[in-house]
Amino acid sequence: LAPDCTVIPLAIEYGFWLERGAEGFIGFGKPMLGRDLLDLARPARLERLESELAATLDRLSADVQSRDPTRFRAVLEGRAGVGGIYDGWRRTIAGILRATPLHTPKGDVLVSILIPARNEAKNIGPALDAALSSVGVPVEILVMDDGSTDATPEIVRAYAARDERVRLLTAPSLEEGWTGKVHACHHLSEAARGTHFLFVDADVRLGPHAAARLAGHAQETHASLVSAVPRQITRTLGELLTVPTINLLLLGYLPMGFMRLSRDPGLGAACGQLMLVEREAYRAIGGHAAIRTRIHDGIQLARLFRRKGFMTDLAPGDHLASCRMYTRFDEAWNGFAKNAHEGMATPVALPIWTILLLGGHVLPFALLPFAPTFPIVAAALLSLATRTLVTVATRENPWSIPLHPFTMLVGLAIQWSVLLRIGTTRRAGWKGRLYPVGVKP
Fold it and tell me: How far does the chain reach from its first CA to its final CA, in angstroms?
C-alpha cells in the first residue's frame, strides 16, 4: 500500500426498475488516504476497509430500492431489455409466484410496521430510514427494544423525536415458556393501531412500496397472512454457502399452485423476515401468543392461520425489500440451526430431504468425474438449471450458482447436526438466549 495512494470504496448493484430494463448502479464511498491506513495496525486497517466498503454497499442498496432517479447520474444508456434466455427464466419463476399487485390498498388502511430489536445498533437506523420512506399507505413504526445492551434504544429514541410515526417500546421481562422474538412480536401487536401488522426483522430494508403492495395483495387475494422473501444480500463465502438455500427450497419444492387452492396447514409457508397479517384474523387465531414456545414464527404462524381456516400466501419479495442476514459463516450456521429445530431436522422428514437434496443436487457432481454418463450429466445440468432459475428470478448473488452443490451439502450438514444434537446445536438459541428443544405449545 503506497502512502500517497487514495483508496475509494466501490459498490456495484443491479436492479429492474422497468419490467424489461436491467440497470447497473455504481456507488463510491468516502476516499481514504494511504498514509492514514498505514498508520493503523493490519487488523485495524482491514476492519476499516471492510467497514467503509460495507457502508458504501448498504447506501447504494438503499438508493437502488428507493427507485429515485435523482439519486443517480446516467453515464451510459443502451437499448431496454434483457436477453431472451435470462428474461424467460425470470418470467417463469415470476409466473409461478404471480406478480405482486401494483395497486394500493382500498379503504381506510393503516399498516403498523413492527420491528423487534435486540442489540441491533448497526441495523436499526437504516431499517427505520427505509420504513419511513414508505409510500402508498399510511404507516406507523413500532420498535420493541428487547433487552439491548448497545445503543439500539438511543438510536430509536432519536428517530422518534424527529418523526411522530416512530415509537420506541421496551419489552417486559421474558416470561417463562416464551421465546424471545415471539415474545417481542406479541407485545408489539398489542401496542399496534393498524388494520394490518407488518412484522419486519431489523436487518430488513423495506422498499418504498412494500407496505402498500403487501396490504393490497392481502386484500386482492383475501389472504389473512401474506409473506415475501426479501432479496437476500450475500457477500462472503460463508453467506453464499448457507443463505441461498432459502429461495431454492421455497421455489423449487413448495407447490405454489396447490398452496393457493388449499388451506392445508402442511402447505403453509412464510418468511419471518417480512410478514404481513390482517389484524382481526391475527387476533382470532391468538397471534404470537399461540406459538409462544416456538422459534420459527414464519412457518408456525402460516400453519396456524390455515388450521384456523384462514388463507395465507407467499409473494415475490426481491423488489419489496432486501436483507443481509449474516456476515460470517458461524453466524449463518447458528442462525439456520436455530430454525432447523422446527423445520427439516426431524427423524421422519430429514432422511427424505437428504435423499432429495443429496441425490438431486450433490451426488451428480460427485459422480461426474468418475462416470460422465448421460444420466449423470443430465442430472447435474438440471440441478444447475434449477439453481440458475432461482438465482436470476430472485436476483441473488450469481456466485450462488457455481457454489450450489456445496451450499446444499452445508445445508444438510446443519440439519443433521441439529437432529443428532452435535456441538453447539444441542439447544436452540439466539442472541444470548437458549431454549429447550422439542417443546410444543
Answer: 58
